[in-house]
Amino acid sequence: MKGQIRKALSGFYYVYKEGQTYQTRARGNFRKHKITPLVGDFVEFESDNLTEGYILKVFPRKNELVRPPIANIDQGVIVMSCVEPQFSTNLLDRFLVTLEYEKIQPLIYLTKTDLLTEEAYLSMQQQQAHYEAIGYQVFLPDRKMETQSLHQLSNCFKDKVTVFIGQSGVGKSTLLNKLSPELGLKTGEISDALGRGRHTTRHVELIPVAKGLVGDTPGFSSLDFQKIEPVELSKQFPELNEASKQCKFRECLHVHEPHCQVKKLVETGEIVQSRYDHYLQFLEEIENRKPMYGRNKK
Question: Which domain CATH number covers 234?
Answer without folding.
Answer: 1.10.40.50
